[in-house]
């Protein structure tokens, strides 16, 4: 089954073709960073207009790279939520129209399910097992991005239990806001992580929020306040900026690792899967690999290019649901706010 995936939930247009017999055939992502940098953040109306401009050219480009035409497609998957309603409608409208014209099924995919399953797509053993009709071994998923920070217990595809989530800012959002208050340009999160590499460990010390009490929820807003106070009281030199960035990054990484360890203990699972934009952070990857090794567990990450929003994760998640016989009606449906625990379970069948 060859599935076209379309991702337009926010400020990246992603398109991919996934083949259940051979894996990812081709994918492309167009980022709107330069457009929104003028405003210091994502402008929803401009995001929608740019998706209109880029979605069809990216579909043509991706199909050409895969050596396919639209008539070779067996299904179309698109992000139906959560996300910006206008941006979601662009991708959903294109996907639904294309599927109708080709007389193939279409499926709306939960954006965070796409992130959650992305590491399995890059693991040939897990991927082949899924398409052979076998559920993955249960695992804990850390979904950590600019819009979400969640710990999810995964008992099977479509069988998700929310274990903990952020009570305020997501980790990626905290990175971006912290970078902004220290004068780094939009989007500041990746730049903050880069300059943190030059920072001295221990030069500044920030708290590890909500780790001194039981539970698996997160809170990162207080860290921003600590950074702001430290930055204002400092000489604001470049070396100091790097030291503060390092201390902030260490605090976030330690907090995420502590909660991941608790989640593994609470569930008894021996597998941790990490995805979302912050999942590309090198210090977080190293910390969680060390944590898993010490606990006799395994940890999986998608390649960095598939950590941020992309069409490949939508094509893969959609393929699993289409393969199980799920599909949408002819309407164009999106759900800007969507609880992942409401998703129907998937009874896997062989491809």
Automatic annotation (TrEMBL):
Q: Which residue numbers delimit the Gcp-like domain? A: 26-316
Q: What is its main location?
A: cytoplasm
Q: Which PANTHER family match?
A: TRNA N6-ADENOSINE THREONYLCARBAMOYLTRANSFERASE, TRNA N6-ADENOSINE THREONYLCARBAMOYLTRANSFERASE, MITOCHONDRIAL
The chemistry this enzyme catalyses reads: L-threonylcarbamoyladenylate + adenosine(37) in tRNA = N(6)-L-threonylcarbamoyladenosine(37) in tRNA + AMP + H(+)
Role this protein plays: Required for the formation of a threonylcarbamoyl group on adenosine at position 37 (t(6)A37) in tRNAs that read codons beginning with adenine. Is involved in the transfer of the threonylcarbamoyl moiety of threonylcarbamoyl-AMP (TC-AMP) to the N6 group of A37, together with TsaE and TsaB. TsaD likely plays a direct catalytic role in this reaction.
Q: Per its Swiss-Prot or TrEMBL entry, what cofactor is needed?
A: Fe(2+)
The gene name on file is tsaD
Write out the annotated subcellular location.
Cytoplasm
- Any one GO molecular-function label of the UniProt entry: iron ion binding
Please name the InterPro entries in this protein's record: ATPase_NBD, Gcp-like_dom, KAE1/TsaD, Peptidase_M22_CS, TsaD
Species the sequence originates in: Cognatilysobacter lacus
- What CDD domains does UniProt report for this protein, alphabetically? ASKHA_NBD_TsaD_bac
In this entry, which stretches build a coiled coil? Answer: none
One GO-annotated biological process of the protein: tRNA threonylcarbamoyladenosine modification
Q: What is this protein called?
A: tRNA N6-adenosine threonylcarbamoyltransferase
User: Which Enzyme Commission numbers does its entry carry?
Assistant: 2.3.1.234
Q: What residues bind substrate, as annotated?
A: 143-147, 176, 189, 281
The enzyme's main class, written as a single word, is transferase
